[in-house]
Amino acid sequence: MVTPVAIIILIKDITENSCKFWMQERVEDGPLNGLLEFPGGKIEKGESSVLAAKREFSEEANVDIASAPLFKIQSFDYKDRSVCLFIHFSNGEGINPDNGSWFEFDYNEKSLAYKGRLPEVNYEIIDDLLNYIKKHISADMLENIWAQRS
User: pTM score, two decimals?
Assistant: First the structure.
């Protein structure tokens, strides 16, 4: 069985060379304990991925997010479960969530600086999002990343 999961990646301090993503350290009895993750959780029956992502972010970080465009959908098989991740992102400028920290990512090094500190699926997600942001910067169209995608 595949579990649908929604997450939000909060982004701020976007420059020509890097940006910051907000993450939490996972606390659980299991293989992901101590790893850095984006807030999120299971999508409830009848709930859209964006509503689930916003709800989970509010529950985990004590912040209500106004806009959270869908970035991509990605499936991943852990040893004990399979998930279908609905990955949303949002502008984090001026937002200070609870229970986590901001982590800087360089567009060239990407997720490599955090090797061993993230769940395996997050490396590809982070690298894809960094490429997406960098392309918008290069095209002088950064403001377009916040527009709702269809």
Answer: 0.92
